[in-house]
Design a protein that fits this description.
This is Protein FAR1-RELATED SEQUENCE. The chain is built from 19 helices and 19 strands. It is an alpha+beta fold. It has 4 domains: 90 residues, no CATH class; 68 residues, no CATH class; 255 residues, no CATH class; 65 residues, no CATH class. Strands 1, 9, 10, 11, 12, 13, 14 and 15 form an 8-stranded mixed sheet that branches.
Length: 583
């Protein structure tokens, strides 16, 4: 019977560097890594060196140790064993174990159903008397198992090495092979083709796998049955817990009129997507909703749902919660519904900037639903992709590639970036790499020279990323069900909104009037951000031109000057450094 996790497990979604679902890595010696699948190319065999035959009086720490030893002896001698009988006592528990040859005893006679065709399968049992019996003794509180009877006399022919490996006891499909078989089966490969692929990958002749074709067939059929049962249980649990979540939303709405939620149902009238927000979140958005971060890095294993969280930052630099959504998939249509619902929750107010993960479906939804909003992909999101996509592919050249990639963040113009990007791609032989193409196609969302002048509100910084990560980890603390998750989100969101901020002494650094005025009206977080820019501004010299514009140049740079112009009518500043964009 299939089982499901007793807890709802949330995981941060990421792609394995090798491109597969799992990595099987073990360690051989000092720091030497090797793939387990590669290790299993060698057929798992017990050493052919001579083993000492079990004997009466031989001692083992446990009965499992004894069974393993006898099993290895049996394989080296052309047969296999099975567990026969065991005996219990109130004082010792199991105190006797009988291990026998796989051909011990006789198969019981079966009555054939009348009128039905029945396949008469011949039994391998022939009354063989080979055996090893054990007895447990406890001395000074320590239990030991002693061999009390042993016989290695068989009444049947023993098998050669190439035959004994095919006995059922030794035909095992290891985990790495199981994953590969399931992957090939999912891709539509028939069983005989799967076996052939495994043989080719391991570089062995036909028939040399440690299992048979029928073992592969049985494994695939059994796994499909388990998956079907598991999926059925998960679907049932998801339906029940989702309805309980909606009941919790309804109850919250009755006690808090400002609470908002919405959901959709599919063609089978089952809940599809659910979104919600709180009154204090809506009010916070009215003050601090110019820039929004939409996090979609977590998904639920148990429910198969993607979580989206809308977050912001207040004037104290604290992460604030705006809303939450559970989506059944990652399609552009689902993201579009989430964005539509969020804007409706926020009383029709659109953000100036939205920060998200790198996702083509999400990008398309933002283009449609938030056409006037600037879409930005934070640096931390890009760098995590770069590591997972290229570290394994480039190997020892990755460090050099990463250094070149980091330099691109300091390129000042879009034209120079495109040129330097092409040079880097050619240097490392990545001209046809799909991830390189994806990053370049998204350059207007993450490259500094493309997004200069956009309002980011200090939300594209490492400090904000750490704050978001801390908030999300506080929410995803192994919740048992969706209702518990819902409650945890509400508690965390409310705590963020009422977190106490201690007063700080603000020290002036430039002693210019604007700094003194800012110190009297801004929070420490906002003042520190402005002060940082004022200190940097001191490194630039401005020369007024005849037309009222200013020529600005860094005191250490002979080139790179830019023209800055103030447009009084529209109260905008235009800078040639930002490709003429208004600031």
């Amino acid at each position: 019977m299939a089982s499901i996790p007793s807890k709802n497990v949330w995981i941060r979604r990421q792609q394995c560097p090798c491109g597969d679902w799992k990595c099987y890595v073990s360690y051989e010696g000092e720091g030497e890594e090797t793939c387990v699948a590669a290790q299993l190319v060698k057929s798992e065999r017990v050493s052919s060196e001579a083993m000492v035959a079990p004997y009466v009086g031989m001692v083992f720490k446990t009965d499992n140790d004894a069974f393993e030893y006898y099993g290895n002896f049996a394989r080296n001698n052309g047969f296999s064993i099975r567990k026969e009988r065991s005996r219990l006592s109130p004082q010792l528990g199991v105190y006797k174990r009988d291990f026998v040859c796989y051909r011990s005893g006789f198969a019981p006679a079966k009555k054939k159903p009348i009128g039905e065709h029945h396949r008469d399968r011949k039994s391998v049992r022939c009354g063989c008397d080979a055996k090893m019996y054990l007895s447990k003794e406890v001395c000074e509180g320590i239990a030991q198992w002693f061999v009390v009877q042993f016989s290695n006399v068989h009444n049947h022919e023993l098998l050669e090495d190439d035959q004994v490996r095919l006995l059922p006891a030794y035909r095992k499909i290891h985990e790495a092979d199981q994953e590969r078989i399931l992957l090939l089966s999912k891709a539509g490969f028939p069983i005989h083709r799967i076996v052939k692929v495994l043989e080719l990958e391991k570089g062995i002749h036909g028939g040399q796998l440690p299992f048979l074709e029928r073992d592969v067939r049985n494994f695939v059929q059994n796994r499909k049955k388990i998956v079907q049962e598991h999926d059925a249980l998960l679907n049932e649990k998801r339906e029940i817990d989702t309805m309980e979540l909606l009941e919790a939303c309804k109850a919250t709405k009755e006690s808090d009129e400002e609470f908002v939620y919405d959901f959709t149902v599919d063609s089978n009238d089952k809940v599809e997507h659910v979104a919600w927000s709180y009154g204090y979140s809506v009010n916070a958005y009215a003050m601090f909703g110019d820039v929004v971060y939409f996090d979609t890095t977590y998904s639920s294993i148990t429910y198969g749902l993607l979580l989206g969280v809308w977050l912001g930052i207040d004037n104290h630099g604290r992460t604030i919660f705006f809303g939450c959504v559970l989506l059944q998939d990652e399609t552009s249509r689902s993201f579009a519904w989430a964005l539509q619902t969020f804007i409706r929750f926020m009383r029709g107010t659109f953000p100036q900037t939205i920060l998200t993960d790198l996702d083509p479906g999400l990008r398309d939804a933002i283009r449609t639903e938030l056409p006037a909003t600037k879409h930005i992909i934070p640096k931390w999101n890009i760098l995590s992709k770069v590591s997972s996509w290229f570290s394994l592919h480039l190997g020892s050249h990755y460090a050099e590639f990463k250094a070149e990639f980091d330099l691109l963040y300091s390129v000042e113009s879009t034209e120079d970036f495109d040129i330097r990007w092409g040079q880097m791609v050619s240097m490392f032989g990545l001209v046809s790499d799909k991830h390189i193409d994806l990053l370049f196609s998204f350059r207007e969302y993450w490259v500094p020279s493309y997004i200069r002048g956009c309002l980011l509100a200090q939300m594209a910084t490492p400090a904000y990323f750490k704050s978001v990560d801390l908030f999300l980890k506080g929410v995803f603390n192994a919740q048992t069900c969706l209702c518990s998750f819902f409650e945890k989100v509400g508690i965390s969101a409310n705590f963020q909104g009422h977190e106490h901020q201690e007063m700080q002494y603000l020290q002036a650094k430039t002693n210019i009037p604007i700094e003194e005025h800012a110190r009297s009206i801004l929070t420490p977080f906002a003042f520190n951000a402005l002060q940082h820019e004022l200190v940097l501004a001191m490194q630039y010299a401005a020369s007024e031109m005849a037309d009222g514009s200013y020529l600005v140049r860094h005191f250490k740079k002979m080139d790179g000057e830019c023209l800055v112009m103030w447009i009084a009518e529209s109260e905008q500043i235009h800078c040639s450094y930002g490709d003429g964009k208004a600031l």
